[in-house]
Design goal:
transit peptide; globular; 396 residues; transcription; 0% strand; transcription regulation; mainly alpha
Length: 396
Amino acid sequence: MALLFKLKSLRLGYSILSSTFASKTKRFVVGDRKPSNFSLQIQLLCRHFTSEISANQHNFTVTYLINSCGLSPKAAISASKKVELQTPERADSVLALVRNHGLSEAQLSKFVRLHPEVLLADPEQTLLPKLRFFISLGISKEDLAKTLAFCPQILSRSLEKEILPDYNFLRSLIPENKVVSVLKGRSWFFFEGHSKNVVPNIDLLRQLGMPQSCINLLLAHYTNVLLLKHERFGLVVGKVKEMGFNLEKATSVSALRVLCGRHKSVWNRSWELYGRWGWSDDDILSAFRRYPQCMIHSEKKVTEVMDLLVNNMGWPSRKIAQYPVVLSLSLKRRLIPRCSVVKVLFLKGVIDENLHLGSVLRPVEKHFLEKFVTAYLKEIPQLLNVYQGKVEFQDV
């Protein structure tokens, strides 16, 4: 009501002002302050009225983001700096569209929080064609929803000028199912595009002798590596070569991933951790060359594996540096069951305690069971139960 009254007053003021100027123009003389004062009042009223409209629009946007999109008040205020809603109709249509394409309420909230501008997009003309294109590639609604929640900015790119060219570029290098995996797991490629950094980075790798099979591995699984700025990418590639990696081997791809994707602090933390377990600098570098991912495992995982293999099983710590891939194996599904069986065999004196850990942990399950379980069942009937976790090795 207050706004309506002010609006009526504003209109009345303009009417009076217009009438006054029309009928009494000749009566105004220089120095007459009444027209000036009246004009100032009108200007102030206009300014106040405009600011109230702006404030109400802002309040509506924040309220909408909270009630319809599930944002927290803090997130809604932050998002409202990027988008201002005049009415709810278009935003409602956008939300309905993405809900129909599989987004849960939690995903929808993240989708809007990361890219609130999407609420202003034309759902039929702008968004729907892109969604239909992604679905035509064979992406399930579930995977599409995950992609949109992770990288909603992909919908801000032009289908014809950006998304399709990026897709065709990838399709020319890797199989279509791998292109889909890039979209599902590394959708930033479709947001960043390929021309700025990916093409020059690939050209550099080719010049240095990396085969297409390794480049395809990067594209399909570690696309973010190729999105690095070209100058930094060149420095990382140089570092990989200095550390003794052969760019013709797949391990160089893993090394690029590790050195490109992690901060120096993570590298330093891993270096110090392995040092505490008795590895020399040469041991650490040797382990990195064999299995680059050893430098990005969590401290908790490394500590648990080393404690099991070194403290419980008695294998020398530096032996693990010679076979670092064991750090990637599941404790629950592989390491503990196998170590429990071998511990029983050690205690019973039926196998040599100098057994190489690779012969225990490397074989597939079938071969391990044949060599270490089935072969000793007559002597130790409970051995299979030990492997399955039904009996503790101390109880055999």
